[in-house]
Amino acid sequence: MIGRWRERLGALTGPRAARPDPEAPAVEARGLRKVYRSGAIAVEALRGVDLRIERGELVAIVGPSGCGKTSLLNCLAGLETTYGGEILLTGIPLRGLSDDRRAALRARATGFIFQQFNLLPTLSALENVELPLLIVGRRGAQARARATAMLEAVGLGDRLDHRPSALSGGQQQRVAIARALVGRPAIVWADEPTGNLDSESAAEIMALIRRLNREDGQTFVIVTHAADVAANASRLVRMRDGRIVADEPTGAAPAEARTTTVPLAADD
After folding, report:
1. Taking the CA of residue 216 as centre, how many other CA atoms within 13 Å lie in the half-sphere pointing to its CB?
2. Segments making up each domain of the chain, as ranges
3. DSSP class of residue 50?
4. CA 149 to chain centre
5. Is 261 left (phi over 0), alpha (psi -120 to 50) or beta?
6. What string of H, E and C letters represents the secondary structure of 170-230?
7. What number is the average pLDDT over the span 135-142?
8. Phi then psi dihedrals of residue 15, to 5 deg
9. Which residue of 16, 126, 131, 240 has the smallest Cβ count within 10 Å?
10. SS3 76
11. Nearest to 174 by CA among 164, 183, 184
12. How far is Cα 89 from Cα 247, in angstroms, rounded to an integer?
């Protein structure tokens, strides 16, 4: 399976492949619209959203259920293919990219943290974290060393060989964060990252995200309905009825941007 992914992604990394621009914003949307249709019924989830997120920012997108925040994340992350307006991910327009090239760009430039963790249950913590690097063609020893370093960075250096079932919810989310960061992405998307955690574990996860943003310049975009989670961000984007109704700093200083992204195929 890993070999097939390597071949598929490797074919997309030649000299004609789109490359992330290290000077461009992490992501930018212009006049973004998204409509869901069911028969004769049309629901306008996004209504002309303009948003620019610079590298090094820690942004929280908040709003009531149904306001469009998850639709916005899915569009910005390249998970939606039908929308109006324009999206540039690391300076690359998403419109017109084939499914394979869009997937390759996501693999190179983004990481994801999910509410449900989405760890492979038969793999150890270390194997879960190194898997994205193996898929994009990193050598085994290099991938293992990088994955080990990331797990140590999130405080799980003593849990490398544990499977998800042997870890607490907070520890599983730390593994998921390490997996999202292992490829040094330009931006990490976090959809309700503390939704399945108790209050103590949630506070620890948000402290970890703040530290990674502050010390490493990692860009995070967090979608949440929880005020205490949003309070950790340096910028707060409020949505209602498919529109951004407020976009303001919280007072926390954004980190200095880091622009390195991992190459898609092994190059050393």
Report:
1. 21
2. 2-249
3. E
4. 19
5. beta
6. HHHHHHHHHHHHCCCCCEEEEECCCCCCCHHHHHHHHHHHHHHHHHHCCCEEEECCCHHHH
7. 86
8. -65, -20
9. 16
10. helix
11. 164
12. 20
Burial 193-226 (b: 16+ CB within 10 A, else e): bbebbeeebbbbbbebbbebbbeebbbbbbbbeb
Q: From CA 142, how far away is CA 111, in angstroms rounded?
A: 19
Residue at 142: amino acid letter: Q
Q: Residue 3's Cα: distance from chain center in Å?
A: 24
Three-state SS at 243 = strand
Q: What is the pTM of this model?
A: 0.86
Residue 5: CB partners within 8 Å, gap ≥ 6?
135, 136
Quote the Cα angle for 192-197-200, to 5°: 120
pLDDT in tens, 184-202: 999 999 999 999 999 999 9
Contact (Cβ atoms closer than 8 angstroms) between residue 212 and residue 181: yes
Cα-Cα-Cα-Cα dihedral of 205, 211, 216, 222, to 10°? 50
Cα–Cα distances in angstroms (integers) from residue 184 to residues 69, 97, 108, 169, 212, in the given order? 25, 22, 9, 24, 11
Q: Does 157 score more than 70 pLDDT?
A: yes
Nearest to 240 by CA among 48, 67, 93: 67
Name 33's bridge partners: 47, 84
| Biggest alpha carbon–alpha carbon distance for the chain | 55
Which CATH number is 2-249 given?
3.40.50.300
Compute CA 4 distance to the chain's CA centroid, rounded to the nearest angstrom: 24
